[in-house]
Write a structure and sequence with these properties.
heterodimer, A: mainly alpha, two-stranded antiparallel ribbon, 59% helix, B: mainly alpha, two-stranded antiparallel sheet, globular, disordered N terminus
Chain lengths: 256, 450
């Protein structure tokens, strides 16, 4: 069996390793199916987290503790967290609608998916059946981390650096697209805001409400400033400023 | 260093050989340590903060108020468990448990002491150790974020969601700074296993001053001072403690991600916060403060680093670090969110990168004792770092007097009252004097009685 040979290569086989595999493998599959089947986007992300955690443990199980831990830290801890972050910004009630826009696409997707899984599984089984995994002892001779580091920084250093350059280019490009440049003089800090507020020509206090200190309670009547002047700032722009005449303000004699 | 002293260091080969009951004892011990640390930690924090604010703190339940947290915990367990209508029930239920599990799991790779003998078994005082133990710690702390974020999301209301969002952004940012400061430790120790890092910190070289040989400290807190400072700052950010407790900033977000939680679920969040604080202190001790190794004056005594004694030094260091956490909370005001993020990305991260570059450059110089160059560079770099952090922004200028400020105002400014304005007493206020008969006291012996 391929499973047992891979496990056998991972140092000394114990029953615990096999038990762990048979517990976590169904969990990983359930996570994968749940990720597709879940309606809610956050639930989908959580199912995917489950699958990724199981994968991390599988790596550790197969004598690759470094890649296992990096899988958990980077993929589960950072990248899925960013996914969740974006999903939360989108809104918590955003669920997929059940209306099928392309007729028969679900059935087609299921059939194609099963077919593809069968092809890959069959090919892997045919290719791996009967082969024994060799070379793990040599690869992990001076420790798993040291072995990976030696390969990364000697044999694969060019590919490694190219990948990092690609990632940095992508990150910088995203930042350039999303970034809004603000010049230094455009940024206003709190002291300069306050200075502008109390500068000559600017009234620092709140605007008086229309009708306050006015001779009538109409919104069209401008308010009076403490020194008696009328202020146009108290009336809406579409209304003309109008002071009531003496006749208008005098008693109409209706209350007698 | 005598050979018997070095023989106490566990190596990776010493792990995985314990019988099952010994493993069980160790796991239960680590778990109980986490719970007890929470019980005592809450009490400790309240007492210390009380002392700093000149008030007694909890002192009624039990001796010195030690059982106050236990009483509070019991009270919390008996409270009604409220499930909000808008909550996502499954996620809401699981979020606190994720937090607690991650916080407690991290304790399993922390070395509490050297090789000891338990019921005839020669075994290290540590649940387990793997070649990538420090990465396990990082993984636990990064998975712990899920508890907070999901708790905030599943509560189904605005404040918890905002708290969860804040905490995810915060913990991701500070995890980067934390990971980078650990890189320096990896480079110096040459291993990622926690017991190996503690062992590496024991090899201090002897300094001869005035004929006395004093062992130079092998602590990475001194050798890698900038890393230590940045690491500790990031642990405060990572554990959501003041002054970085933005996810639960009560003046902005009520209680942040745990606003809707009550009863035992709230208690679990509380538990995970304190366990995380103690775990982070233990990790800082392990990575930078020599782990369970005794500091210099105690090492004069030969048996200081063998047997069960190292556990005492370890707990002492952890308590000292927890005290620093509490001290920070009692002293510093909470940062604004943008200041906090800028600090993480624009200050801690670049300093860390430059320091790693300098360190790797130094390590590639061959003809110099590595410890010597680390001390020669680490201490100045640390001093430089502290100086940059606390450098005043500009020279304080002599403050103009009020009259000068008034005179300098441009024409047309908002009118001011005269500076020597004396407000006359209002004529409407009349002094009310009670007029009454003198008290009729028969025995007027005491003159103070009226």
């Amino acid at each position: 069996m391929t499973t047992s040979t891979v496990l056998a290569a991972a140092g000394d086989v114990s029953g615990g390793e096999e038990i762990t595999f048979w517990i976590l493998a169904p969990l990983a599959l359930i996570g994968a199916i749940g990720m597709v089947a879940a309606r809610n986007a956050v639930h989908s992300a959580l199912w995917l987290v489950l699958t990724m955690l199981c994968l991390g443990v599988f790596y550790v199980l197969q004598a690759g503790p470094f890649i296992g831990m990096v899988q958990i830290i980077v993929y589960t801890g950072a990248i899925m967290m960013l996914f969740l972050f974006v999903l939360m910004l989108v809104g918590r009630d955003a669920s997929d609608s059940l209306i099928e826009t392309l007729r028969g696409q679900r059935v087609a997707a299921i059939v194609l998916g099963l077919g593809f899984a069968g092809l890959v599984g069959g090919a892997l089984y045919r290719a791996m059946d009967g082969t024994t995994a060799v070379g793990l002892e040599q690869a992990n001779a001076e420790g798993n981390v040291q072995g990976i580091a030696r390969l990364l920084f000697t044999k694969y250093v060019f590919a490694f650096e190219l990948t990092s350059a690609l990632l940095i280019t992508a990150a910088v490009g995203a930042m350039v697209l999303a970034h809004i440049e603000r010049r230094k003089q455009d940024k206003v800090d709190q002291p300069s805001t306050m200075r502008a507020r109390f500068a000559p020509g600017n009234y620092p206090g709140p605007k008086p409400g229309p009708g306050v200190f006015a001779t009538s309670s109409s919104v069209a009547t401008p308010a009076r400033l403490p020194d008696g002047r009328l202020t146009e700032r108290s009336t809406p722009d579409i209304l003309p400023v109008r002071e009531l005449t003496a006749q208008e303000t005098s008693l109409k004699g209706t209350d007698q | 260093m005598s050979p018997s002293y070095l023989a106490q260091d566990p190596t990776l080969a010493d792990f995985g050989r314990d019988p099952w009951w010994l493993v069980l004892i160790k796991i239960v011990f680590a778990f109980a340590f986490g719970l007890l640390a929470t019980l005592l930690g809450v009490w400790f924090e309240r007492r210390v903060v009380g002392y700093m604010q000149v008030r007694p703190g909890p002192n009624q339940v039990g001796p010195f108020g030690l059982l106050q947290t236990l009483a509070d915990g019991l009270k919390m367990a008996f409270k009604e468990d409220i499930l909000p209508k808008a909550a996502d029930k499954v996620v809401y239920f699981f979020a606190p448990t994720i937090s607690v599990i991650c916080a407690v799991t991290a304790l399993s790779v922390v070395p509490f002491g050297p090789m000891v003998s338990i019921f005839g078994h020669h075994t290290p005082l540590q649940v387990t150790d793997v070649p990538v133990a420090v990465l396990v710690l990082l993984a636990c702390s990064s998975m712990g974020v899920y508890g907070i974020v999901l708790g905030g999301w599943a509560s189904g209301s605005t404040y918890p969601l905002l708290g969860g969002l804040r905490s995810s952004a915060q913990m991701i940012s500070y995890e980067v700074a934390m990971g980078l400061s650990i890189v320096a430790v990896f480079m110096t120790a040459g291993t990622m296993s926690t017991s190996g890092i503690v062992a590496q910190q024991g090899h201090g070289t002897e300094l001869t001053i005035f004929g006395n040989s004093i062992p130079a400290p092998g602590w990475y807190a001194i050798l890698l001072l900038p890393s230590f400072i940045i690491f500790f700052i990031s642990t405060v950010g990572e554990t959501n403690r003041a002054p970085f407790d933005l996810p639960e900033a009560e003046s902005e977000l009520v209680a942040g991600f745990m606003t809707e939680y009550s009863s035992l679920k709230f208690a679990l969040f509380m538990l995970s916060e304190y366990v995380a604080m103690v775990t982070m202190s233990a990790v800082t001790t392990t990575l930078f403060l020599g782990g369970w190794r005794a500091p210099w004056p105690i090492t004069i005594w030969e048996g200081a680093n063998s047997g069960w004694w190292p556990m005492l030094w370890f707990f002492g260091k952890v308590i000292a670090l927890v005290f620093v956490f509490v001290w920070l909370r009692g002293t510093l005001p909470r940062l604004r969110y943008d200041q906090f993020m800028r600090f993480g990305w624009k200050v801690l991260l670049p300093i860390n990168l430059v320091w790693i570059l300098v360190l790797s450059g130094l390590r590639s110089i061959e003809d110099w004792d590595s410890r010597g160059k680390l001390i020669a560079v680490g201490i100045p770099a640390g001093i430089l770092l502290v100086a940059t952090l606390f450098w005043p922004n500009r020279r304080p200028q002599p403050k103009p007097t009020t009259q000068e400020q008034v005179d300098n105002r441009p024409y047309g400014s908002f009118p001011l009252p005269p500076m020597d304005l004396q407000v006359p007493p209002s004529p409407r206020i009349t002094r009310v004097v009670a007029e009454r008969e003198p008290a009729n006291i028969a025995t007027g012996s005491d003159s103070r009685e009226v």
